[in-house]
User: What shape does this take?
Amino acid sequence: MKILAFATILLCLASCKKHNNLLESTTYRASLKVQDNQEIPFTFKVKSSNLIEIYNADEVIIVDEITYKNDSVYIQTPVFEGYIVAKISDDKSLKGYFVKPSLNRSVLFNATTKNTSRFRTTKKPLYNITGNWQTIFSPNKKEDRYIAKGIFSQNKNKVVGTFRTTTGDYRYLEGIVNGDSLKLSTFDGAHAFLFTAKVTDSTLTGVFYSGNHWKEPFIAKLNENYELPNENTLTTLNKDYDSFNFSFPDESGKLVSYSDELFKIRLL
Assistant: This one.
């Protein structure tokens, strides 16, 4: 049986218990199980049985589509299709899946009301990574290689920031430096990211995990003057061309082109 089907069944299974089981009105530490025995942690707070807030650094995601079926809860994240389906145990911990239906993907999901720190720290940070980092993902694969700019702020063990690329960024990242180890994560219902790295005073050497289906290495060096290429230089016309044309069907199926008379600018 496919995992997606199993996750749906989990929501619908009848419980032997006769009472309603609801989320505890407190803070939860959640995690998604990924490759290499790693996990993507995030925190959320239950404001009421039908309202929770998911936290990633300065980002707060309001989730108000929450339904219950016997001993299980269904949490539909806003905007994106991803949802969480989980069984609520007697101690209010959760076990289930994070599901993305269109991709037929699911990730093991757990959450607990105990020890709700996003990442556990056991050591003082050996380095402070505050600053700009010139970054290369998949540095040894020409076909997958791309550049990024890491932008981080660190206060004691805690780190917030992001990796900015030429096409966007990796969302609101939150994590720690524990000794010489960096861990950052985010979860918003579509993106489930984890970055781990070994830290020195001027380098990061690590792995980027996206859900449980993708991972790639990255390297970075501290460079306060580093900037990504100007966005206006990323797309250019081939030599000897001064314009381009394209067509696409409108809602009735009729081909429309930006060069049509309808779209021509009329100067007064």
About this structure: Residues 198 and 258 are 50 Å apart (CA to CA). Residues 11-19 have pLDDT under 50 and may be disordered. The two ends are 66 Å apart (CA to CA).
